[in-house]
């Protein structure tokens, strides 16, 4: 039974999976998010040198694996030899880099929602990424369980060109701060949502956006006091390394 068949925007999105508790952007982090009761995850997608889409945040592999160098220097076979779990904790030793394909299969099986971030590292080709990553994602998930976001405007434009119907593809415009004329950007792309850094957001701008039909998501909020403040500002959803902190906080407030 899918956990999120409503078309309401997600209240919480587990950032890079449940990245406070498991190695970010792995199958384990998505399973952990599901086990903790999260319905949605945010994940970053990029291409390996051979064009395989994989779930990975950095341009390099040093921080989150036992290898070093650039992601785009790897092919699928060499990526599959990396340990992407031990850096986080011994219990994750042997975790493998997730291909987009394997990740989509897991998310489908778990009935979760996905905010897929098209991550265009410096010098990489946005169009190639969209062409490789978007079709299988659109095929795997129903439109109400998918939001495709990016900081990269070329990637968003290419995504909209590939699927012009805003009901069939929800696009999220990612930025640290709201662009001055944010509505021009979101209208041009027929976007579903704006995804902003809460640390750079002020109440006035938040309420102005909340008054419009565009959805507003904030990243990366990790403490219950911030969650409460953002709800008060009319934010639709938060992207958090640990949404379970909110659930715990709510339970404390009730008791
Ligand atoms: O999608 C929100 C957030 O993930 C954007 O920043 O660097 O964590 O991918 P980053
Ligand atoms: Mg991201």
From TrEMBL:
Protein name according to UniProt: Glycerophosphoryl diester phosphodiesterase
Organism superkingdom: Bacteria
UniProt domain GP-PDE: residue ranges: 10-250
A Pfam cross-reference name: GDPD
Organism, scientific name: Salinicola rhizosphaerae
InterPro entries given in the database record: GP_PDE_dom, PLC-like_Pdiesterase_TIM-brl
């Amino acid at each position: 039974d899918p956990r999120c068949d409503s078309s309401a925007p997600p209240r919480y999105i587990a950032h890079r999976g449940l990245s406070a508790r498991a190695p970010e952007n792995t199958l384990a982090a998505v399973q952990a998010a599901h086990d903790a009761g999260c319905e949605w995850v945010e994940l970053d997608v990029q291409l390996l040198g051979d064009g395989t889409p994989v779930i990975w945040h950095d341009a390099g592999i040093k921080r989150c694996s036992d290898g070093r160098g650039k992601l785009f220097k790897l092919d699928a076979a060499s990526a599959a030899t990396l340990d992407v779990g031990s850096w986080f904790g011994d219990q994750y030793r042997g975790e493998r880099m997730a291909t987009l394909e394997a990740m989509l299969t897991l998310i489908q099986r778990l009935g979760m929602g996905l905010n897929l971030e098209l991550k265009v590292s410096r010098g990489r080709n946005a169009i190639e990424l969209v062409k490789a990553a978007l079709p299988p994602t659109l095929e795997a998930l129903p439109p109400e369980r998918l939001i495709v976001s990016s900081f990269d405007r070329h990637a968003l434009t290419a995504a909209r060109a590939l699927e012009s119907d805003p009901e069939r593809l929800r696009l999220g415009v990612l930025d640290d701060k709201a662009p001055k004329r944010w509505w021009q950007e979101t209208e041009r792309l027929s976007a579903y949502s704006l995804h902003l850094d809460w640390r750079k957001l002020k109440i006035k701008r938040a309420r102005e956006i909340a008054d419009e039909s565009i959805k507003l998501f904030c990243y990366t909020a990790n403490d219950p006091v911030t969650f409460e403040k953002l709800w008060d500002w009319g934010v639709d959803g938060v992207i958090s390394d640990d949404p379970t902190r909110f659930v715990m906080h709510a339970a404390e407030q009730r008791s």
